């Protein structure tokens, strides 16, 4: 989006943007006594959604451009959506954040700066995924296979979870993200209360025979590293939430039973997800799951009911809050014609899901947040595939007006009640950073002035040097070993306190599967 304003107008516009951006901002969200709390120890429960291509939108590359991004967060606040989940990288073909090992596209980073700033301006919290398990186009580099391609020590994509050099590259990326100084707000990402939480990865999977053990080992190593650099922000895995056979829930709740001998076999087990141990790991503050009945071949409502009930019930073993952070139900889409379902099925699935969320909130049984995929009211031109469009919810649809909107409004009224009691055992926070303490940078407070992504000159983090030796598609093989990640814990913060849980005595990541009863 280009702007041609006289100097005085630029200055006044900057003041207006900055004043709006930092008014009425909130502090960090914590986990205390097993629930989310705000800085005054009032329980924080939320309704939100997943957004698609906000970085590209901020840079006028798609989806209505910067003005649509501004409108998105304004409308989100008006609709009482308090948390939005996004990818911490673009997905448009040929436009990436990390273009080679340790080499970053500054324009993509500035797009993310703008997204975070617009969320802050509207008191919307963000959950951001560091990277992806999936690639959406052959030129994408912000996914796990790029990390293994950037080393000479990994033999395949799923070696990402165990290859020492791939793990070092991941940690380096985490540190680059968390120490990034937002060019709009002046805050480091890892010190910004606008960012409620991080996903270690969007939907990690490892299909090797010992994939579950390898993912668990990876989480155990990298989650504490993230927390050491961003102790005031929350961390979750970002996985689907499948169970391994060590717990009875694998047969009870997975979309395909462990004993299945049909086409695909027991594919949920083969993903390497091990829901309970994964979320018991040190450094994981809360549990999160996804639910995709169409993709998983289980569009029957009975599955959705069982899936949610199992994970909600299992919060008593974890002692941590649960979030349904990605959920969608398609109308038609890419499914075979004999399996496509109409809007009535979508409505019924959404109603069952939000009713389950409401029941859990009222009974205080663990589910504390829900985010659907996707909202046509905020990114109507974004396209991924027919299925993605088929799963998108319009603001004038009955799903939105009769299910999502009433749920969200009721939750907002509950959260606004000044008579709510503080959470037991929680100490209010004073003096911690908020978005009102952001440094003002006048020129950076304006929206991006160009919509054209750079074709060269992507810079290495913190160096200003241009990338050299990049192969086609932005890939560059790293010879030898990856540089060691910088020492953890160097980010200056006003620490708001460790997460506290209600995990029953004696339960650990090693034995939690055996403790579950079905």
UniProtKB/TrEMBL annotation:
<keyword id="KW-0326">Glycosidase</keyword>
<protein>
    <recommendedName>
        <fullName>mannan endo-1,4-beta-mannosidase</fullName>
        <ecNumber>3.2.1.78</ecNumber>
    </recommendedName>
</protein>
<dbReference type="GO" id="GO:0000272">
    <property type="term" value="P:polysaccharide catabolic process"/>
</dbReference>
<dbReference type="InterPro" id="IPR045053">
    <property type="entry name" value="MAN-like"/>
</dbReference>
<feature type="region of interest" description="Disordered">
    <location>
        <begin position="432"/>
        <end position="468"/>
    </location>
</feature>
<keyword id="KW-0732">Signal</keyword>
<dbReference type="GO" id="GO:0005576">
    <property type="term" value="C:extracellular region"/>
</dbReference>
<comment type="similarity">
    <text>Belongs to the glycosyl hydrolase 5 (cellulase A) family.</text>
</comment>
<feature type="signal peptide">
    <location>
        <begin position="1"/>
        <end position="27"/>
    </location>
</feature>
<dbReference type="InterPro" id="IPR017853">
    <property type="entry name" value="GH"/>
</dbReference>
<keyword id="KW-0378">Hydrolase</keyword>
<dbReference type="InterPro" id="IPR001547">
    <property type="entry name" value="Glyco_hydro_5"/>
</dbReference>
<dbReference type="Pfam" id="PF26410">
    <property type="entry name" value="GH5_mannosidase"/>
</dbReference>
<feature type="domain" description="Glycoside hydrolase family 5">
    <location>
        <begin position="27"/>
        <end position="387"/>
    </location>
</feature>
<dbReference type="GO" id="GO:0016985">
    <property type="term" value="F:mannan endo-1,4-beta-mannosidase activity"/>
</dbReference>
<keyword id="KW-0964">Secreted</keyword>
């Amino acid at each position: 989006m280009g702007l041609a304003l006289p100097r005085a107008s630029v200055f006044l516009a900057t003041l207006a943007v900055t004043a709006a951006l930092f008014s009425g901002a909130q502090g960090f969200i914590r986990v205390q006594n097993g629930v989310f709390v705000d800085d005054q120890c009032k329980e924080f429960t939320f309704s939100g959604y997943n957004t698609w291509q906000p970085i590209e939108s901020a840079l006028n590359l798609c989806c209505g451009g910067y003005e649509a991004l501004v409108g998105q967060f304004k409308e989100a606040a008006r609709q009482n959506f308090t948390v939005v989940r996004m990818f911490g990288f673009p997905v448009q073909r040929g436009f990436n954040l990390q273009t080679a090992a340790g080499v970053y596209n500054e324009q993509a980073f500035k797009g993310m700066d703008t997204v975070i700033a617009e969320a802050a301006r509207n008191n919307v919290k963000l959950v951001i995924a560091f990277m992806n398990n999936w690639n959406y186009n052959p030129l994408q580099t912000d996914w796990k296979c790029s990390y293994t391609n950037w080393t000479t020590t990994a033999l395949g994509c799923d070696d990402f979870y165990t290859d020492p050099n791939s793990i070092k590259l991941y940690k380096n990326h985490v540190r680059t993200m968390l120490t990034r100084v937002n060019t709009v707000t002046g805050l480091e990402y890892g010190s910004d209360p606008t960012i409620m939480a991080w996903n270690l990865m969007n939907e990690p999977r490892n299909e090797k025979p010992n994939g579950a053990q390898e993912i668990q080992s990876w989480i155990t190593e990298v989650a504490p590293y993230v927390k050491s650099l961003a102790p005031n922000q929350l961390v979750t895995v970002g996985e689907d939430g499948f169970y391994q056979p060590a717990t009875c829930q694998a047969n009870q709740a997975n979309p395909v039973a462990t004993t299945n001998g049909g086409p695909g076999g027991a594919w949920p087990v083969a993903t390497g997800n091990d829901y309970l141990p994964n979320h018991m790991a040190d450094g994981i503050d809360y549990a999160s799951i996804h639910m995709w009945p169409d993709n998983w071949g289980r569009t029957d409502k009975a599955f959705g009911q069982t899936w949610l009930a199992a994970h909600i019930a299992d919060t008593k073993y974890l002692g941590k809050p649960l979030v349904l952070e990605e959920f969608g139900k398609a109308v038609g889409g890419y499914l075979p014609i004999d399996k496509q379902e109409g809007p009535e099925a979508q409505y019924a699935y959404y109603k069952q899901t939000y009713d389950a969320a409401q029941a859990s909130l009222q009974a205080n049984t663990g589910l504390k947040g829900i985010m659907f995929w996707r909202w046509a009211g905020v990114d109507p031109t974004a396209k991924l595939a027919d299925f993605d469009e088929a799963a998108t919810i319009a603001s004038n649809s009955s799903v939105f007006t009769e299910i999502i909107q009433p749920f969200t409004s009721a939750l907002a009224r509950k959260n606004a009640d000044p008579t709510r009691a503080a959470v037991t055992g929680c100490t209010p926070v004073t003096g911690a950073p908020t978005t009102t303490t952001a440094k003002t940078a006048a020129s950076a407070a304006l929206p991006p002035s160009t919509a054209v992504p750079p074709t060269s000159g992507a810079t290495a983090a913190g160096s200003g040097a241009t990338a050299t030796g990049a192969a086609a598609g932005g890939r560059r093989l790293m010879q030898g070993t990856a540089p060691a990640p910088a020492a953890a814990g160097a980010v200056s913060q006003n620490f708001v306190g460790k997460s506290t849980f209600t995990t029953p005595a004696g339960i650990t990541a090693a034995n939690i599967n055996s403790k579950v009863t079905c």
